[in-house]
Amino acid sequence: MKIFHLSDLHIGLKLINRDLREDQEYILNQIIQKAKEEKPDAILIAGDIYDKAVPSAEAVEVFDHFIGNLRTAVPESVVMMISGNHDSAPRVNCFRSVLTHQRIHMIGMPPQTEEDHIEKVVLQDEYGSVNFYLLPFVKPSMVKLIVGTDENGNNLSYNETIHRLIDREEIDETQRNILVSHQFYLPSGESAEEVERMDSEIRTIGNIDQVSADILKKFDYAALGHIHKPMKVGSEFYRYCGTPLACSVSEAGQSKGIIMVDIKQKNQITTEILPLVPLRQIRVIRGDLEEVLAQTCGDYVTVILTDKVDLDVIDMQDRLRLAFPGLLEIRRETVRQADYTRHAAVEKTLNPFELCCQFLNDADEKEKEILQDIINTVHRILTTI
């Protein structure tokens, strides 16, 4: 069985001051062409379909055209997708029962009651059944009626929540099982600080959303979304595919692609990266003004000027905009020297979450989760202004 693994489309994203509709449509058309060539049996999209919980009409139109053209290109393929932390779970869940009849499974909500289970889609090939478990992005508060709370009635940690949610499923490990999930999984023994995160990702303060990847051992392959840089999670077969198109300057220079998974008998899996080439690359060009101007191109560019002399700001901006039609931003690199010897003590710098917790003193887990949501919302608003 041949499978395409995608995630984090972030349709509707704006890159600093640039509308990426043309670039996103270009990449989505490449995905459709690759599907037409390879004819996968299943196409998995592991969350963050849209960039915002309330996508614009244009973003919905882009997604609609993508799914429609994908269905036309590979009518026999089964498309499965889940909501991510950028999506609105109820919106993704809309028309779920209708779309299922079109071989499209859009799962926005995790299990809501004791009777509910993680959505399971079963496909057949010459070797038997392949079970796909579709688990949308989960916050502990969303499933506390199922997984329970701690002894004080507070929400469980993300780690404990995901473990309990998956453990309650009756997974036959003699069969081939694939998980589609949108969480922050970490290999056992690895620190969250060791994982390189991109500027376009929404991160929790203190990495309270991390989940131990040992729970993935129940599955033959884990198609993961959330991390924007391609990454393996302790195994060749537990993977983040990354974004198909760079979503921030921090992703400059990264290779993007589709992970094509070929699963035959139990424990016989191979993976291959199908490269995706953007309409415009994201580049960071550093040097003095004349050195930078000599590298004119049509890509999206962040310029870092190293000139030690003052420049005519208006003239400099005009020349750079002429040389780089896709100019994103101009930064000045300056060398500053300061005498800090007068400071007798160095105080620890606290992040916003730590400062608020320090102020509140005895905040419980539920209050901390609400606080985290507020900080993330404010951060998201500030980064889009």
Rg for CA atoms: 23 Å
- Number of helices, where a helix is a run of at least 4 consecutive DSSP H or I residues: 10
Ranges with pLDDT <50 over ≥5 residues?
Answer: 339-347
| Beta strand % | 25-35%
CATH superfamily grouping of the largest domain: Metallo-dependent phosphatases
User: Any idea of the CATH topology of the largest domain?
Assistant: Purple Acid Phosphatase, chain A, domain 2
Number of strands: 19
State the CATH architecture of the largest domain.
4-Layer Sandwich
Summarize the structure.
The chain has 385 residues and is an alpha/beta fold.
Topology (SSEs and partners):
Layout: E1 2-6, E2 14-15, E3 18-19, H1 21-38, E4 42-46, H2 57-73, E5 78-82, H3 89-93, H4 96-100, E6 104-107, E7 119-125, E8 128-135, H5 144-147, H6 158-167, E9 176-181, E10 184-186, E11 210-212, E12 221-224, E13 231-235, E14 238-240, E15 256-263, E16 269-276, E17 282-287, H7 289-293, E18 300-305, H8 313-323, E19 326-332, H9 352-360, H10 365-384
